[in-house]
Automatic annotation (TrEMBL):
<keyword id="KW-1278">Translocase</keyword>
<comment type="subunit">
    <text>The complex is composed of six subunits: RnfA, RnfB, RnfC, RnfD, RnfE and RnfG.</text>
</comment>
<keyword id="KW-0288">FMN</keyword>
<feature type="modified residue" description="FMN phosphoryl threonine">
    <location>
        <position position="168"/>
    </location>
</feature>
<keyword id="KW-0812">Transmembrane</keyword>
<dbReference type="GO" id="GO:0022900">
    <property type="term" value="P:electron transport chain"/>
</dbReference>
<dbReference type="Pfam" id="PF04205">
    <property type="entry name" value="FMN_bind"/>
</dbReference>
<keyword id="KW-0472">Membrane</keyword>
<comment type="function">
    <text>Part of a membrane-bound complex that couples electron transfer with translocation of ions across the membrane.</text>
</comment>
<dbReference type="InterPro" id="IPR007329">
    <property type="entry name" value="FMN-bd"/>
</dbReference>
<dbReference type="InterPro" id="IPR010209">
    <property type="entry name" value="Ion_transpt_RnfG/RsxG"/>
</dbReference>
<dbReference type="GO" id="GO:0010181">
    <property type="term" value="F:FMN binding"/>
</dbReference>
<comment type="similarity">
    <text>Belongs to the RnfG family.</text>
</comment>
<keyword id="KW-0285">Flavoprotein</keyword>
<keyword id="KW-1133">Transmembrane helix</keyword>
<dbReference type="GO" id="GO:0005886">
    <property type="term" value="C:plasma membrane"/>
</dbReference>
<keyword id="KW-0249">Electron transport</keyword>
Length: 193
């Protein structure tokens, strides 16, 4: 193989890479609005599932504590009959087994968890993905908004969440995310009224 062939092959590879990159960029530009819209629809569906009876949401400014592992993106007052009946939190925990888990957490003004919903995740199918199952999520429902701890199988109750077998990291990421919302509620929103 001569120098001319090496140069020619390198030029062909460069052209293929350049065209592929340009096509990926074009596809991203064409689909980014639809992807963002789907994300918002998932978020609205999650909020509706944990607070089905709401007149409107009032977004609040988020007081960021600088923790990049678990970031609260949104805090929404839940308004019903012109009164605040609780708060919904949208947060990202970047310490799932494979990355980010986006969680919605609802807390009533009386200081109980309305529910949680997993908006998105990249956990292992059949293991970590079980954080989306009702059996796991419903352990939080109607519990006092105090920090939760993760227990092993069969230890649920008293704010102890039964971990998913073989998916401790995913379970822990959800518990830590919910605790972030609980702590924010108690420290910045006055806790139970």
């Amino acid at each position: 193989m001569g120098k001319n062939n090496i140069f020619k092959n390198a030029l062909i590879l460069f052209a293929i890479t350049l065209i592929s990159g340009a096509l990926l960029g074009l596809v991203y530009e064409l689909t980014k609005d639809a992807i963002a819209e789907q994300g918002m629809l998932r978020q609205y569906a999650a909020l509706d599932s944990i607070t089905p009876e709401v007149d409107t949401y009032n977004p609040l400014d988020v007081i960021n504590d600088g923790d990049t592992a678990i970031e609260i993106r949104e805090v929404l007052e839940i308004i019903k009959d012109n009164a605040v009946i609780g708060y919904n939190f949208i947060l990202d925990n970047n310490r799932g087994y494979y990355g980010r888990i986006t969680i919605a957490v609802g807390i009533s003004s009386e200081g109980t968890i309305n529910g949680i919903e997993i908006i998105s995740h990249t956990e292992t199918a059949g293991l970590g993905s079980r954080i989306t199952e009702a059996g796991f999520k419903n352990q939080f429902k109607d519990e006092v908004a105090e920090p939760f701890k993760l227990g092993s199988s069969g230890t649920s109750g008293d704010n102890t969440i039964d971990s998913i077998s073989s998916a401790t990291v995913s379970s822990e990421a959800v518990v830590n995310g919910v605790n972030k919302a609980v702590n924010y509620y108690n420290e910045h929103l006055g806790g139970a009224q």
